[in-house]
Design goal:
Blueprint (H helix, E strand, L loop, with lengths): L13 H13 L4 E8 L9 E2 L3 H10 L4 H9 L5 H9 L5 E4 L5 E2 L6 E6 H6 L1 H25 L3 E4 L8 H13 L4 E2 L2 H7 L9 H5 L4 H11 L5 E3 L5 H17 L6 E4 L4 H14 L6 E4 L5 H9 L6 E4 L1 H4 L9 E8 L2 E2 L14 E8 L2 E9 L8 E2 L2 E5 L2 E2 L6 H13 L3 H4 L9 E3 L1 H30 L1
Length: 463
């Protein structure tokens, strides 16, 4: 049987549902709080950008197990009849607090917190991580590309190499939030209101017997937005033919908009191509560079003041090639009236619902403080906002352009030492006195209640 879009409730890990059945059968369904955060930075990363919240809110509002979904679960033979009947009526009734999309966040800071009966809050874990992990990761990668380009336009060329259709759409949106100027993804452009950009492929050139015939044909079809791909055979002879077409267009009152170089030594070729265009008097013809680029390449080209007006960035950004995953976690931090934490080696978590306060000096971001949700930290801006209550979003979702403006404003106030492409400084994030005290108190209790008896038995056995 074909899956229906309304069966998104099944897009979860099995253990979410097995835990949920046990919770249900034990009557263990008090209000719970979960924090979503990233434990550590990938190499050369020093920040993350919040992204993906809108997909989470839409999913939570629409969460339901349809009769078809329940029937599929029944046929697995895993779940009890009473639990499946319960699922038929389940809706998300909880609340969400989150750092708004487009804002920066850092290691250990909760980018999102869910508070709901534990069955509801548990079942939604997988989807939330799936969406937030990808979109925060890509937005952060794209922001680094924009920073490395040093004011030159950057265009998303990633669709054909992203990991599936959903990722292709989310990458276009995330990269635009991070300051990309356009996308080649037509559906994403129309869906999200992102400017579209694209030129031609090498197949277009080679389908004609002569390269210049391909150039002329494309110029006739797109006289107002003609950008010619010039290195199918050789970039230097290609740009010379582009100059000839540019002269023909100028005689008709048209203007060649640009040329694109997609392979080879982009720095050397870019300089030679710029020289040829300028000598011919076509100072306003732009050069677009592409071909396996990401922020590391753009950083080197920018250092050499390469004569590019724009870059097409695809595969490495779209899959975050240097860091294709983050250690994002969704951890229980409170159950009922009891704050909890995790002490596993390398995966220690901070207890209880939290707030993040941001401090600025002279208009620049200075440091953050992670605090308890009800702490007041004078002088700091609280970042986590209440965005959902009783299973409903509290305000209309902002446009992608508004989220982009929010990011660009904050990123401009983020010191360059933390944006560095290689080995950035670590942005200061502190833990408040109240949160430290609670963490130490709970850790002492856990050690005394859970670990010391085990250690005592081990010592007895060894003796």
């Amino acid at each position: 049987m074909m899956m229906q879009s309304e069966d998104m409730s099944l897009l979860t890990d099995l253990y979410e549902l097995t835990m949920a059945q046990s919770y249900f059968q034990e009557g263990h369904n008090d209000l719970a709080a979960f924090s979503l955060f990233i434990r550590k930075y990938p190499p050369h990363r020093g920040f993350f950008v919040a992204c993906g919240l809108q997909d989470v809110l839409r999913y939570l509002e629409g969460l339901r197990f349809t009769p078809g979904a329940v029937d599929r679960l029944h046929h697995t033979g895993i779940f009890s009849h009473d639990f499946l009947e319960y699922l038929k009526k389940l809706r998300f009734t909880g609340g969400v607090r989150a750092i708004p999309e487009g804002r920066l966040f850092f290691v250990d800071e909760p980018v999102l917190e869910v508070t709901a009966p534990i069955i509801e809050a548990q079942i939604v874990e997988t989807f939330i991580i799936n969406q937030m992990n990808l979109q925060c990761l890509i937005t952060s990668k794209a922001a680094r590309c924009v920073h490395a380009a040093r004011g030159r336009n950057v265009i998303d060329f990633s669709l054909r190499r992203t990991q599936g259709m959903d990722a292709g759409m989310k990458v276009a949106r995330a990269s635009y939030v991070a300051g990309f100027n356009a996308t080649s993804n037509v559906l994403a452009g129309i869906t999200y209101g992102i400017p579209l950009s694209g030129t031609m492929a090498h197949s277009y050139i080679s389908s004609y017997e002569h390269e210049i015939d391909a150039f002329r044909a494309f110029a006739r079809s797109f006289p107002e937005r003609c950008i010619l791909l010039i290195e199918t055979y050789d970039a230097i002879t290609g740009v010379q033919k582009a100059v000839e077409v540019a002269r023909e267009m100028a005689a008709q009152g048209r203007r060649l908009r640009g040329v694109r170089i997609d392979s080879g030594d982009l720095l050397t070729l870019g300089r030679k191509v710029r020289e040829i265009l300028d000598k011919a008097g076509f100072y306003d013809v732009q050069i677009v560079g592409s071909g396996g680029l990401d922020e590391f390449d753009l950083e080197e080209l920018s250092k050499e003041d390469a004569p590019y007006d724009a870059y097409g960035v695809g595969t490495k950004m779209g899959v975050s090639g240097d860091a294709p995953w983050t250690d994002m976690a969704y951890k229980l931090v409170r159950y009922g009236e009891r704050p909890v934490l995790k002490l596993s080696t390398g995966k220690v978590s901070l207890p209880d619902a939290k707030q993040v306060f941001r401090f600025t000096e002279a208009g620049q971001m200075h440091h953050d403080v992670i605090a308890l949700h009800d702490e007041i930290i004078d002088g700091g801006e609280p970042l986590l906002e209440r965005v959902m209550a009783d299973g409903k979003a509290l305000s209309p979702l902002p446009k992608v352009s508004e989220i982009r403006d929010r990011f660009l404003d904050e990123f401009a106030r983020f010191p360059d030492c933390y944006k560095a492409i290689y080995n950035p400084d670590t942005y200061p994030v502190e833990v408040s006195p109240g949160l430290k005290s609670l963490r130490d108190k709970i850790e002492r209790h856990v050690v005394a209640a859970e670990l010391e008896p085990v250690r005592w038995r081990q010592e007895l056995d060894e003796s």
